[in-house]
Write a structure and sequence with these properties.
The chain is mainly beta. Helices cover about 0% and strands about 45% of the residues.
Length: about 120
């Protein structure tokens, strides 16, 4: 299933278990073979407010918007530009063969990272 603004997987930095973390370059879905607990970490950086959704098997499990909503973090301007981002560390319990996808709405010049670790 493809979602509007779906982020393609472009680069893999480290994969210590390629039998579990299945991905294809420029495809928008990552398959996690083993069920269980995973640590999900991510950060998206742009000068305008981004919106990021994380999907599991086609359903939204997390929807992040800019943190200027009264939460503990507040963005302030910095002379070097945008040095903070929309970040998250979350622990999720995923089913076998979970299909994970991310959608991003924001500036086209934005950048980000996404990390999954099996616990």
């Amino acid at each position: 299933m493809h979602h509007a603004g779906q982020v393609p997987w472009e680069v893999q930095a480290i994969n210590t278990c390629p039998e579990n973390f299945l991905w294809e370059k420029n495809k928008g879905v990552l398959i996690l073979v083993a069920p269980g607990l995973y640590q999900l970490s991510m950060g998206f950086y742009s000068s305008k407010q981004p919106s990021v959704k994380i999907y599991v098997n086609g359903e939204v499990i997390i929807h992040l918007k800019d943190k200027l909503d009264g939460s503990r973090k507040q963005k302030t301007k910095h002379s070097a530009g945008n040095v903070t981002g929309l970040t998250l560390v979350e622990f999720v319990a995923l089913p076998a063969r979970a299909r994970v996808a991310i959608s991003y709405e924001g500036e086209t010049s934005g950048e980000g990272f996404f990390s999954l670790r099996k616990l």
